[in-house]
Amino acid sequence: MSSMWVLDEPSPSPDARIAYGPGPYHFGDLRLPSGPGPHPVVVVVHGGFWRAKYDLGYMGHVCAALTASGFATWSLEYRRIGHEGGGFPGTFEDVALGVDHLRALAGKYSLDLSRLVFTGHSAGGHLALWLGARHRLPGRGVLCRGNPLRPRGVVALAAVSHLPRAFELRLSDGVVESFMGGAPEALAVPYSLASPSALQPLGLPQVLIHGVEDDTVPVAMSEDFSARGGSLGDDVRAVSLPGAGHFEIVDPRSREWPHVVEAIRSLM
Fold first, then answer.
1. How far apart are CA 107 and CA 85, in angstroms?
2. What SS3 state is found at 40?
3. How many angstroms separate the CA atoms of 39 and 37, rounded?
4. What phi, psi does 265 have (nearest 5°)?
5. Whole-number Å distance between alpha carbons of 135 and 151
6. Is 207 left (phi over 0), alpha (psi -120 to 50) or beta?
7. What is the side-by-side order of every strand in the sheet holding 153-157?
8. Tens place of pLDDT for every residue, the chain, 268 residues?
9. Residues 36, 70: Cα–Cα separation, whole Å
């Protein structure tokens, strides 16, 4: 992980760092393309297996590259494992609040919320899929927020799309148990609200991009999620990239990067 340039080099500065809530991790980084707008928008959710030691910094390169391609980007920070209130349900509450805050920013920054795509990497891919599926949550559920902002689609990058399966595989030393506060058999309702796999069909277009050689999150997770979504009527496809591991798809200098930009454009 430390050998990848995208994690080693300083992230380009955002145009604005904006609070979306009252806590120290309730903020997002906004980057705007040149020109008057209104700009299409990509919400970017960073990964790091939901742990406090990983923040939004490494996705700044992704955001800068997308902004150079003509998209405004809104990169979300949120409470993680190790922060007070992090994990279930606080992490979910935070990213939902952060996405919906775009409505308050749209006028000032000339954002076109009718052209909106969510993307995220690894655990951030999980959160991006979940954010796209919020309209599927039960109306009185713990994570329900009225009138969630809905995107045109989701581009999930090496996403942890199936939390019970990730628990079974003990990804990242069993992090799912820490994130959710227990095992799936003991917490059936929380897992049913938190795992994108439990919310299928999501009811919006999805592209799941994954490196075949990923040894952090197995490519089969995206392929199986896509196949199941398709069988349930979703517009979903998996793009499996031979030779790629976990981080090439968030490296704008990589040969895999154009697949990400192409997928986002295809949903706009």
1. 31
2. strand
3. 4
4. -60, -40
5. 11
6. beta
7. 16-19, 27-31, 72-76, 39-45, 111-121, 153-157, 206-211, 236-241
8. 334 566 678 888 999 999 999 999 999 999 999 998 899 999 999 999 999 999 999 999 999 999 999 999 999 999 999 999 999 999 999 999 999 999 999 999 999 999 999 999 999 999 999 999 999 998 766 787 778 999 999 999 999 999 999 999 999 999 999 999 999 999 999 999 999 999 999 999 999 999 999 999 999 999 999 999 999 999 999 999 999 999 999 999 999 999 999 999 999 9
9. 11
What is the widest separation between alpha-carbon atoms in the chain?
52
Two tokens at 228? Answer: 């199941």
Is 83 within 8 Å of 23 (Cβ atoms)? no
- Six-digit token pair at 165? 């399966």
CA distances in angstroms from 185 to 51, 177, 234, listed in the order given: 23, 11, 27
* SS3 assignment, position 199: helix
Q: Which of 264, 262, 204, 207 is nearest to 239 (CA)?
A: 207
Q: Which two tokens stand for residue 260?
A: 């990400």
Q: How far is CA 223 from the centre of its chain?
A: 17
Which tokens hold the place of 150? 């809905």
N- to C-terminal Cα separation, the chain: 31
- In whole angstroms, give the CA distance from residue 67 to residue 260: 13
DSSP per-residue string spanning 212-242: TT-SSS-HHHHHHHHHHHHHTT--EEEEEET
